[in-house]
Amino acid sequence: MNKLRLISPQFSTLRAFSTSPSRQASLGACGMKPDYGPLEIGRCTLRNGIQLVSARPFGAPMAACTILYQSGSRFEYDDQLGATHFLRTCSNTAGCSYTTFSKTRVLQQLGSYITVNSDRQSVAFTLRCPVPAFHDVKYYLLDIAARTCFRQHEIDAYKPQLKRDLQNIHPEVLVMDLIQKACWGGGLNNSVFCEKERIDSMSSTELDVFSALHMRSDTCAVGSYGLPHDEVMAFAEMIEYKRELPVSPRCYPPSFARGGFEYHDLGPDSDTWIAVAVPGCGNTDLPCLMSHNIIASACGTGNNSRGQHDEDRVPQPPLGGYATDVSTMFRAFNISYADSGVFGILVKTRSCNACSAALIAASFLKKLGELTAYQICIGKQRLKLDIALQEEDCVSISEGMALQAACCARLDNAYETIKLLNTVTDQEVFATAKCLASKCNKMAVAVVGDVQAVSHDRELLCAC
Question: What is the mean pLDDT of the chain?
């Protein structure tokens, strides 16, 4: 099996600051591995503009290192639309120093692999390897992430794979991508997937231009897990100096809330995924971001228990109480990027129940300000439990550290994250919930499945 692999693109929109169990703490609240003892945290800013955060437990057998650029799909424009999808898929092509065969063979022999994922905000390249092997395989990560070199014949060879990716996207991931398109206009409206009509027209020149413009050292952050800080700092200094002086703060393409409707038809009588959402918050204000995550947990983001099958799971109330059968699922979500975000409710149900389920989700979102103090307390306890029980591998922790560096945040471990959570008062949470409910005039709707089973009248959903 080729160990130089890509994280499947359908998972890319769910990363970053969502409220899935693995990201409940936001900003990649990097939970400590109790088996390895306390973390040794190192932070610095290099002369080439790179923000660096390293976490080193004592005795970790595996290490990970992430090079993260704030150059997600929101930075694409004109002929570059879809460039980040190509970056994910074509990352194992021949680079400036190593061929595809060399990368695959050496990484596999040394028990290592490189993953690439992206969202609207960032692109992350992560190397996972045994600690002693880092000295030998780190140059392959540099070749893929910092010394990009695209050749037209290799790009053409990967275009059929991109078309297959579009056909195999899971409906839940697709609806999460569409709800962000429906919620925002401008840069955040750009999908993390390249449109089918644009795949054949993408050229190596456009990818090279995108890399030169956005994958620079002043937009770069490096995170690591299991490696000495000095070694990681020496590695980060090898990333080419591409910064133009004087350095200005990272500018984000403007986005505006549009409250639109997006859909993808899977045919009659197919299972249907529905998402309703309103504009959320960015990740620069940690207490506000934590309030959004508390509200999502209070509504219910998953199941009370984990079984072997979906039917074995009991959904979290109060949203879970609206599920009338085992085929229906309600959960809240919160996705935050640098300056904005999306808060909403995701529904999965059969086509015969799709219309009523969409009305229930929209009505619940509109009444979000009516959450009780008891439900807020339960939400905090759920969030604390998810943080304390984190069992992410070194790759996720490394990416979390890079995210923290890129956002200039500091959440070293689960204890620090829970400590921040405890500082958020119930009054702040209630105020945030009422603010979200007041944004329902900008409610966005996305449907994947039997679109004829759901009303296309967004005003009707907003007025429910």
Answer: 84
Is the sign of the CA dihedral 57, 62, 63, 69 positive or negative?
negative
Is the Cβ–Cβ distance between 83 and 202 less than 8 Å?
yes
Between CA 273 and CA 175 the distance in angstroms is 7
Decide: 119 and 12 in contact? Cβ < 8 Å. Answer: yes
Nearest-angstrom CA–CA distance, 103 and 279: 42
**CA–CA dist 68, 405 (Å, integer):** 9
| Angle in degrees, 0-180, between the axes of helices 426-438 and 373-388, rounded to the nearest 10 | 100
Q: Dihedrals φ, ψ of 185, to 5°?
A: -110, 160
CA distance 401 to 412: 8
pLDDT of residue 249: 66
Q: Are strands 261-265 and 113-118 parallel, antiparallel or unpaired?
A: unpaired
Nearest to 107 by CA among 65, 67, 140: 140
- pTM of the full predicted structure? 0.86
Q: Are 406 and 221 in contact (CB under 8 A)?
A: yes
For the chain, the residue count is 464
Q: Which residue has the tokens 């692109």?
A: 123
Distance (Å, whole) CA 329 – CA 183: 22
At 308 the pLDDT is: 47
pLDDT digits (tens, 9 = 90+) for 211-254: 988 888 888 999 999 999 999 999 999 987 555 544 566 788 88
CB of 184 closer than 8 Å to CB of 257: yes
- The 3-state secondary structure of 38-58, one letter per residue: CCEEEEEECCCCCEEEEEECC
Burial class for 167, CB neighbours closer than 10 Å (0-12, 13-18, 19+): exposed
Segment holding 421, helix H or strand E: helix 414-422
- The two tokens of residue 89 are 């898929």
pLDDT in tens, 10-32: 322 223 333 333 333 333 333 33
Distance, C-alpha 261 to centroid of its chain: 22
* Residue 213 phi, psi dihedral angles, 5° rounding: -75, -35
